[in-house]
Design brief:
Elements (H helix, E strand, L loop, with lengths): L34 H6 L6 H4 L23
């Protein structure tokens, strides 16, 4: 009689069932620009971009500093 050997599962698995620490359902949804506006409109010129208080004055001595907006995706 031959005994069947069983393979033990690895200690770490890609199909882990542990919960993520980030609650996906409680994340804030950002307003997205529609496909139509991306094609025909001013690309990326949404209210958040126009109304953001950028550092600098836009002159040679005090250039605007380019930075990502909060909640930018």
């Amino acid at each position: 009689m031959v005994a069947a050997t069983q393979l033990q599962p690895p200690a770490s698995s890609a199909s882990s069932t542990t919960a993520n620490t980030i609650d996906v359902e409680s994340q804030q949804i950002n307003a997205k620009t529609s496909h139509f506006n991306l094609i025909l409109g001013q690309v990326g010129l949404i209210e958040a971009v126009l109304n953001y208080n950028y550092t600098g004055h836009g002159i040679t001595d005090s250039l605007y500093l380019v930075e990502f907006l909060p909640n930018d995706s």
